[in-house]
């Protein structure tokens, strides 16, 4: 089997930053189909910047982001649109529209990208709400939901186009540990049960150990990746002080 057959995302020699300020360079890694991949690092190490460059919100200074073999950086027109539709994104805030019900929020991408009849859109959106265990709240407004429920509703919306890849920016930010653990279980189910590839930015160690198959650790000082691998292996076997410290800071 070729090394690339299982890779759904390849990041090659990526250099990212703002104006002429380089935040990260020499970034190389692969994300394997179906895995939960976490981008880790201290505050300001460039996790969100890397994610935003991967999903096409920013243009890298150099390098490639291949998604299903297609370069996100240079894709334009219909090819770019197809690439954008091949993944979902869960933003940190959830970004639900306050004046719309949960169901209407989840349907939004179908309104934009398809001309399906309303009934079909309702059925698809309801099936996604069931997938995240939120079907009973479909007629509620976002203001009537808890923080964890807002995340689930936003997740249903990110899943509504049946993406093969889901990008998540700090999905547990601001949630209590129990709600956060519930979301982790949902992420595991999306990966193991539905075969969706998850790429998440996080610094919640319990979540990392609970769901991530592989991780990269970014470092603001050297502006690059300082460790890559399974988080349990890195915790138990890493010898570099910086890496040991990151993975053991809260571990028993
Ligand atoms: N829009 C922007 N314009 C200029 N500089 C930015 C912008 N966004 C982030 N930065 C800078 O880029 C660096 C990396 O920020 P980034 O938000 O990617 O880090 P992070 O690892 O996600 O941090 P955190 O965990 O605190 O969210 C920081 O020095 C930050 O000040």
UniProtKB/TrEMBL annotation:
Record keyword Transport present: yes
Q: Which InterPro entries match?
A: AAA+_ATPase (IPR003593), ABC_transporter-like_ATP-bd (IPR003439), P-loop_NTPase (IPR027417)
Name used for this protein in its record? ABC transporter related-protein
Q: Which Pfam families match?
A: ABC_tran (PF00005)
Query: What are the GO MF terms of this UniProt record?
Result: ATP binding; ATP hydrolysis activity
SUPFAM superfamilies reported for this sequence: P-loop containing nucleoside triphosphate hydrolases
Assigned keywords, A-Z: ATP-binding, Nucleotide-binding, Transport
Annotated ABC transporter domain residues: 9-247
**UniProt superkingdom:** Bacteria
Its source organism is Pedosphaera parvula (strain Ellin514)
Checking PANTHER family in the record gives: PROTEIN TRIGALACTOSYLDIACYLGLYCEROL 3, CHLOROPLASTIC (PTHR43023:SF3)
């Amino acid at each position: 089997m070729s090394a690339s057959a299982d890779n759904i995302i390849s990041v090659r020699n990526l250099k990212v930053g703002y104006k002429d300020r380089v935040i990260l360079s020499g970034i190389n890694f692969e994300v394997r189909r179906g895995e939960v991949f976490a981008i880790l690092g201290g505050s300001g190490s460039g996790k969100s910047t890397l994610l935003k460059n991967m999903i096409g919100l920013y243009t890298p200074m150099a390098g490639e982001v291949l998604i299903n073999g297609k370069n996100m950086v240079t894709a334009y027109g219909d090819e770019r649109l197809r690439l954008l539709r091949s993944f979902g994104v869960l933003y940190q805030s959830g970004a639900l529209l306050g004046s719309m019900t949960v169901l209407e929020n989840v349907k939004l991408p179908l309104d934009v990208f398809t001309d399906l009849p309303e009934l079909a859109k309702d059925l698809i959106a309801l099936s996604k709400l069931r997938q995240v265990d939120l079907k009973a709240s479909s007629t509620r407004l976002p203001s009537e939901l808890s923080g964890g429920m807002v995340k689930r509703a936003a997740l249903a919306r990110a899943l509504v186009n049946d993406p093969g890849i889901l990008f998540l920016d700090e999905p547990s930010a601001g949630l209590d540990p129990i709600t956060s653990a519930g979301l982790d279980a949902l992420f595991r189910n999306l990966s193991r049960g539905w075969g969706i590839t998850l790429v998440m930015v996080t610094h919640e160690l319990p979540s990392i150990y609970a769901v991530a198959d592989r991780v990269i650790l970014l470092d603001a000082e050297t502006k690059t990746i300082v460790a890559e691998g399974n988080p349990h292996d890195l915790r138990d076997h890493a010898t570099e002080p910086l890496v040991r410290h990151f993975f053991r800071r809260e571990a028993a």
